[in-house]
Amino acid sequence: MNHTRLFQYALACLCLVPMFSSCVSTKTLKERDKEIMALREQRTNLKKELRATLDEMGSLEVALAEASARMNQVPEPMPADPNRFDDINKLGIDTMQRGSDLVISIPSSITFGSGQAALTSQGKQAMMAVAQTLEREYPSAEYWIEGHTDSDPISKSKFGSNRELSIARAMAVLHYLVENCGTPDAQCVVGGHGEYRPVASNSSKSEKARNRRVEIVVHRSS
C-alpha cells in the first residue's frame, strides 16, 4: 500500500468516527431515557402504594379508637335499692348499680384525713358496716377496692402523687376489712386510679369532695 492509499484509508476512518460516536451516543441516550421512564413509573407506583397504606393505617386507627372507647365505656350508674343497703347508706356511704356490679362508694370525708391514708375511727365504723353488708349480700363475690382522688396536686403529704395516695388508701381499706372484719383476702383486688376516674368535674369544692373516695366494686360470679 503506497502512501497515497494509506492516507486515503486513514482519512476515511476519521470520517467514520463521528458517525460511530453519534450512533453510540444516541443509543446511550435512548437507554437512559428508558431507565428514567421506568424509574418514574416505579416512583408513581410506590406513591400509590404509600397512599393506600396510609389510608389503611388511618382506617385501622379509627377502628382501634372506636374499639378502645367501647372497651373503656362504663355503664351509667343507677341507684341501688335504698332499703336493701339502708344500714350503710345512713353512714354517708353511697350504693349504686353499674351494669351488673354493685358499687359501694365511701367518701374520704368519713374515712381519711386530708392527704392521709390511715382510717379514722368513723372510717373504721364504716368499714365494719360495709364488711357486714358484703358478707350478708355477696359472700362469694369478688371485691375490687379502688382508691380515687380529686385533681389537686399533692402538696403537704408524704405521698409523691395522687396515684400513690389512692393506692395507699385502698390498701388501708383492704387491711382493715381482712384483719379486723374477717373479709377473705383472696376475694379482694386492690387498685388506685388517682385523679383519672372522676365522678364530678373538679371545678368546685363540693365536686372535688365527690371525687375523693374509695369504691368497693362487687363483681358477682356469673
Could you give a quick summary of the protein structure above?
This protein has 222 residues and is α+β, with helices and mostly antiparallel strands.
Considering the chains and any ligands shown, give keywords for the structure.
2 domains, alpha+beta, single chain, 60s Ribosomal Protein L30, Chain: A
- In the CATH hierarchy, the third-tier topology of the largest domain is known as 60s Ribosomal Protein L30, Chain: A
User: What would you give as the CATH superfamily of the largest domain?
Assistant: OmpA-like domain
pLDDT under 50 segments (min length 5)?
Answer: 69-74
User: What's the Cα radius of gyration?
Assistant: 39 Å
Average pLDDT figure: 83
- Reported CATH architecture of the largest domain: 2-Layer Sandwich
Shape: elongated
Per DSSP E runs of 2 or more residues, the count of β-strands stands at 6
List the helices and strands and how they pair.
Layout: H1 3-72, E1 78-79, H2 86-89, E2 94-98, E3 101-107, H3 121-137, E4 142-148, H4 162-181, E5 188-192, H5 205-211, E6 213-219
Parallel strand pairs: 4-5
Antiparallel strand pairs: 1-2, 2-3, 3-6, 4-6
Helix pairs in contact: 3-4
Structure description:
With 222 residues, the protein is of the alpha+beta class. The protein folds into two domains: 1-73; 78-219, 2-Layer Sandwich (60s Ribosomal Protein L30, Chain: A), CATH 3.30.1330.60. The chain has five helices and six strands, in the order αβαββαβαβαβ. The protein has helices at residues 3-72, 86-89, 121-137, 162-181, 205-211; strands at residues 78-79, 94-98, 101-107, 142-148, 188-192, 213-219. Strands 1-2-3-6-4-5 form a six-stranded mixed beta sheet. Strand 2 (94-98) and strand 3 form a beta hairpin. Helix 3 (121-137) packs across helix 4. The chain is elongated, with a radius of gyration of 39 Å.
